[in-house]
Amino acid sequence: MPVLILLRHGESEWNRENRFTGWVDVDLSPRGVEEARRAGMLLRGFPIEIIFTSALRRAWRTAEIVREVLGRPEIPIERSEALNERHYGELQGLNKDEVRQRYGEEQFRLWRRSYEVAPPGGESLADTQRRVVPYYRQRIVPELEQGKTVLIVAHGNSLRALLMELEQIPPERIPQVEIPTGVPYVYELDEGTLAVKQRRIVTPEVEGVKS
């Protein structure tokens, strides 16, 4: 049975500072490194055969830390800009609270969580979906069709775009979907159709990993 695991990178320095990050290549915070290590511990026992990640440091460093914790340096890691975070355009680097105060709650919410509204000079979630889903179908699905266990380490919005494909989430519902940093989502897929048979969120409480 093919298994697909989705993992948002650990907390980044700009997550910690509450800034819009987008394609700015910031690193993990110390807490983010620990979240990546914890994710690796949670994923022990899963026979991961290949890891896909974005081209941004916070994602591929998370992938490398997970692989190190698993003790499996032979697992290939493939990076692609197709899995990058949504580009936030002119908002990148700005503090989210300051943007909210300057433009108002409604505009802030539209830029941050809506499906079709893009920030100035940036991408909407729909734009992000138009690069994530083709990459998933063309590059990742063939690995799943071989019955492999695949790990994708990416970002809040690129993973939300992929969730729309996997779980058939309509655009009107996606603004309510949040993906926490460092928490694996495990999907068991149907061998023939790759439709989702089961989804579970792997947490320390489930797996018995100590703090």
List keywords for this structure.
six-stranded mixed beta sheet, 211 residues, 8 helices, globular, Rossmann fold
At the first level of CATH, what is the class?
Alpha Beta
CATH topology: Rossmann fold
Described by its quaternary structure, the protein is single chain
Portion in helices: 40-55%
Please give the order of strands in the largest beta sheet.
3-2-4-1-5-6
How many structural domains does the protein architecture include? 1
Q: β content, as a range?
A: 15-25%
Order of helices and strands: EHHEHEHHHEHEEH
Tell me the overall shape.
Answer: globular
Distance between the terminal alpha carbons, to the nearest Å?
A: 31 Å
Largest sheet: 6 strands, mixed
CATH level-four homologous superfamily name: Phosphoglycerate mutase-like
Number of helices: 8
Radius of gyration: 17 Å
CATH architecture: 3-Layer(aba) Sandwich
Q: What is the number of strand segments?
A: 6
Low-confidence stretches: none
Describe the structure.
The longest helix is centred in the middle third of the chain and has 21 residues, at about 125-145. This protein has helices spanning about 15, 30-40, 55-70, 95-105, 105-115, 125-145, 155-165, 205; strands at about 5-10, 50-55, 75-80, 150-155, 185-190, 195-200. The chain has about 210 residues and is an alpha/beta fold. It is about 40% helix and about 15% strand. Strand 2, helix 3 (about 55-70) and strand 3 form a beta-alpha-beta unit. Strands 3-2-4-1-5-6 form a 6-stranded mixed sheet. It contains 8 helices and 6 strands; from the N terminus they run βααβαβαααβαββα. It has a single domain (about 5-185, about 195-205), classed as Rossmann fold. The model has no long low-confidence stretch (mean pLDDT about 95).
